[in-house]
Design goal:
- This protein has about 180 residues and is of the alpha+beta class.
- It is built from six helices and six strands.
- A two-stranded antiparallel sheet has the order 1-2. A two-stranded antiparallel ribbon has the order 3-4. A two-stranded antiparallel ribbon has the order 5-6.
- Helix 3 runs antiparallel to helix 4, helix 3 packs parallel to helix 5 and helix 4 packs across helix 5.
- The model has no long low-confidence stretch (mean pLDDT about 90).
């Protein structure tokens, strides 16, 4: 059986930010993909994570999302303990393969897999380019993205969505000032 269609306005970000983006605003109301295991199945499929959409995986994934929200929207110092608690459930095993150095994640319990992978991904983003982890600049948007633009100046989760709304709002403000 295939997973349902992903209803989120922004998907395909690195797995840590994609987990944050399981909450979004739609017409002034917060939506949440992870209210049940069906939504979890959609998120797992979107990120090509081969784990069962079980209650335990959902609980651990929600714990990781809360921890990521604390560090991304709050502060690293205040949110570190929550993320560390998720990371405590796994580790990276280094290997040597025919292609050279390899890595394979190991989990204390497989139901921690998606949560741990999202937490580890965030650490990788912090290591590679912490200044490229961004929240959308639109005041009513809560989505996050990893800025891959050449000059690092992306402001919107989507130019077609939030970027266009901001431009339209500025245009409207300019043309109604004279009235």
């Amino acid at each position: 059986m295939s997973a349902a269609r992903d209803p989120r306005p922004l998907a395909g970000e690195p797995v840590s930010l994609d987990l944050l983006n399981t909450r979004w605003m739609h017409e002034g109301t917060m939506r949440d993909l992870l209210t049940d295991t069906d939504g979890l199945a959609v998120w797992l499929a979107a990120n090509r994570l081969d784990f069962p959409a079980s209650g335990a995986v959902l609980r651990h994934t929600l714990q990781a999302r809360d921890a990521l929200t604390a560090v991304v929207d709050g502060s690293l110092a205040e949110g570190a303990a929550g993320l560390d608690a998720v990371l405590a459930h796994g580790r990276v095993r280094l290997t040597l393969t025919a292609q050279g150095q390899g890595e394979s994640p190991e989990f204390s319990d497989p139901s921690w897999g998606p949560a741990w992978l999202a937490a580890r991904d965030y650490l990788e983003l912090l290591r590679s380019a912490p200044d490229r982890i961004r929240g959308c600049a639109h005041e009513s948007c809560i989505l996050h993205f990893f800025d891959t633009s050449r000059n690092g100046t992306r402001r919107w989760c989507s130019m077609a969505g939030c970027g266009n709304r901001a431009k339209a709002s500025r245009h409207y403000a300019r043309h109604t000032k004279g009235d």
